[in-house]
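Hi R.,

Here's the chain you asked about this morning:
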Amino acid sequence: MTTLHFAESLRELVGGVDVVLSDIWGVVHNGLESFPEACEALHTYRSRGGTVILITNAPRPADSVQRQLRKLGVADETYDAIVSSGDLTRLYVAEHPGRKMFWLGPERDNSIYRGLDAVTAPLEDADYIVCTGLYDDETETAEDYRGMMLQARERKLTLVCANPDIVVERGDRLIYCAGAIAELYREIGGEVIFYGKPHRPIYERAMALAGERQGHPIDRKKVLAIGDSVRTDLTGAREFGIDCLFVTRGIHAEEFEGLDQLDPASVMELFGHPPKALMRELKW
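And here is the predicted structure, written out as tokens:
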């Protein structure tokens, strides 16, 4: 294994790349503000014939994600389409009509069942759980939900995780996500269905949309994923068989501070399997 260096720009990595599958949170914005250079890089790539599909573990449908992007100053021209874990979770709910759902998450995520014939119920009466996050991610951790999860396990309820992320950036802080509760539930013996990265369905949907834009099926050798999480972005890309550009300004920022290159031992320790390249922040 060779030493892994930091790339200076996206343009040196996209020769022969037809499609970019880009993460959003940590790459395009940090939850409070957008990253102008990252947006410009994706827009420039599109202007040169490339297709950009944003893939996100946001537990909301794509149109809700788009509204948030607009509020943060991310122009529609930055990308071709959005695929969210919320979209896939909504499909699960739609395919289980009449079954009672216990929804665990903040009120801002109520679009997860908007427009669906979803029957909500308290935990003791529910047939399954949909988890979009913590009720109060500013103050709580997954451990605050251990009692609830033990109760759910006793009833053998399936938990559908609409956001496999453990943590995400909010400004300069890390906050817990639905994935933290889902992993706790799995650890205590509960059944979990994960939608979103690193799991295959979100990549399959993104590739289908890219194929529609390009007018032909997409060769995975001509796809580049971009992300900032080893657990979701890098692992998901590797298991799907596509290259990954790893952005270090995100949730792993502290681990990369002051580094200009990584020796083989450090690569193995941080990544296990290395990405195609590293970049501090996405720029053209």
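One quick note: The first strand starts at residue 4 and ends at 5.

Cheers,
M.
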